[in-house]
Amino acid sequence: MKKGLMKKIVEFIVFTERLDISEYDTAANLERALNQQRDEIGDAMAEALRNEGHGDLVSKINLGNKFSIMTLILFFLHYAPEGCVAVEGDKRNFCRSNQCCIHTMFTKLYNFVVNEYEKGPDKMKEWAYGGKREEDVSNRMAAVDLIPFLLEKMDKDSEMREQYCQVADYFGLESYLDLMIIPFCIAQLHIRLFEKAKLEANPGEELEERAQQLQLHFCGAASSLHILGLEKGMQKYREKLSIPSSVKVTVGPHPQCWLMGLLKSRSIFSEEISMMIAEVIVSIYSCLDKFPQDFQSQITNIFGGGGGDSVNLPMYNHLAKKFRDAGLLQLDERVESDSSDDKEAVVKNILAGNGLGLVVSSFIFGEMETVTLKRVMVRIRNCSAHHECRQLAKTFRVKNLLQLDDLVESDSSDDKEAVVKNILARNGLSDDMSSFFIGQMKNDVTLKRVMVRIRKYSNVQERDSLQYELARKYYYIAG
Length: 479
Fold this sequence. Notes:
This protein is mostly helical. Helices cover 55% and strands 5% of the residues. The chain has a four-stranded parallel beta sheet, with helices on both faces. The C terminus is likely disordered.
């Protein structure tokens, strides 16, 4: 006999499978009934956490947007990261319309397509992230995550998988696959509510004859892998997510791929695939705004990564960490010193040998179409230095070293570098941090110029910290 949350999950499957929408007088009544079911499964999840001794984690339950008869598009994503703020008035929904990935799907991509159609692709090169248009605050778009629980973002798939298992254990479940059944059922119920709302709007009309369909879009490989039933253990649930003719199913890149501008890379996406993805994006939002049949969006060639020739800072910051951890911040010098004439092959081999795969190498070679490898590496080193300075600022503030230049100036020794090293060592700074600081002194000529920069970073951090504390005071922040 199944116990605990698993018993409720089985009941949720049975409810979803046996739901007869004709038994409800109106779509509004069905909407209320489905939101009640949503509340009940959420309560059961909360009870399971408390019973397993994890009551402090109840606030991390995430069931996505509530059911609404207005919903025309349902985005299925992977998970919401810790630190996301719950939707006001809905503590079990972290799919905020202004949160990074949701904002991309709800607003940025949608706005881009509309503005591109109205103003043309040339204008959109100035508006790489969608352009100026009011945010859609209606319930026409909804989202649900594959994992109904806030997770910590990990770099490796294996680490994420371990976290899935840990979360399942929190709920007293044998497998995280059992936990995925919940969003499966939620997606199915969104479909049934849409069917009821359409029947009510057009009584007697066959669903197959309708031009308007519910758009079900899977964002990213992780979601599509599991939800389309390719994962072992999920095969038996594949039939539970029945896809009637009233639903149009599409699969597309993760929102972060859009934001970083990876769709522009022809080494990752061929021209043919790129145009197909653009067509999918237009088709998704066609239920919100009608576009002509001959409209061919250039969104995959323009969106993300900064406007025009501007630098893709999100990707460079990402690479800075990767290259710093792999000891590759002097990659250009290593390539230059190699005797091989095929420098591109040298770069590929070095990256592959350090566990940096296709996405990284594709981005590097994409950048090298307009600038040299040396220039790419200068940008990466600058981003790395930016990170190191932020770390130094935080440490200096904690250690009361923000006036280090005054301390050194007041010392009678002529060897100012030695004085700096001694002060840093006494305050427990690591050799790497100390070496970086000394290196910055040499680059900037004077200690005072370095400290001006450090204090600037510290002031920004204090401001960000104050804003965060205000957010914690006036808004609910998970975790």
